Amino acid sequence: MNRFLFLPVLFSIMFFSCSKSSDSSNPQYYFNATVNGQKVAFNTNAFAQWEINGDFAALMAGGYENNSQDSRTAGFVIINLPSKKQITAGAYNDSGDEFEVIGSYNIPAQEKDYQSGTTLSAEAERMGMNLPNKFELIITSVSDNIIQGSFSGDFYLEADPMAEKVTITNGSFRLKVL
Predict the structure, then answer these.
(1) What is residue 8's predicted lDDT score, i.e. its pLDDT?
(2) Mean pLDDT on 18-34
């Protein structure tokens, strides 16, 4: 399967396989962002999770706005392909050639899925487009127990660089790793 199709599918499976339980009211952990100028806390069941299999490693993080079935969600995944290098503290973006990164913002009530990252960047490049506000993920601290950092970028509907977009700024997270 083409890796550009595989990664969004992997992200969706990993993100939505985690069930929403109760509101994560522990202020020590958070997943926040400003979406089109509106501050949003995605702190319900906010989590981070490692998926490791041999040389393959993926780190996924995200959360829900609330406990409703139609809750907006936001998250990201970083995968060590094709480099198979360790995921450490540092800056990751959609232009890198050592790691795949995908950001996701979903509005289930409107059946809208916005994505940013490596897949979107590759599609824009294929179309001869230059995306001005690319996805950037900065991990300031990562361990087996806690991950912390920031993220921002333009997220496009269905990862289509010609479609409508939302701009996410001031993304910040500090999450317990499950």
Answers:
(1) 46
(2) 69
pLDDT greater than 90 at residue 67: yes
Residue 157 · residue 116 · CB < 8 Å: no
**CA distances to 73, 102, 169 from 18, in Å:** 12, 18, 25
Distance CA 85, CA 1 (A): 22
Beta-bridge mates of residue 75: 62, 104
Q: Where are the alpha helices (DSSP H) in 66-110?
A: none
Q: How far apart are CA 54 and CA 85, in angstroms?
A: 12
Question: Residue 117 has which token pair?
Answer: 């990252």
Return the pLDDT at 96: 83
pTM, rounded to two decimals: 0.85
SS3 80: coil
Looking at residue 125, its amino acid is E
> Over the range 160-174, which residues count as b (16 or more CB within 10 Å of their CB) and which as e?
ebeeebbebbebbbb
Residue of 63, 76, 77 whose CA lies nearest to 32: 63
Read off the tokens for 41: 């806390």
What's the pLDDT tens digit per position in 162-174?
Answer: 999 999 999 999 9
State pLDDT tens for residues 120-132.
999 999 999 999 9
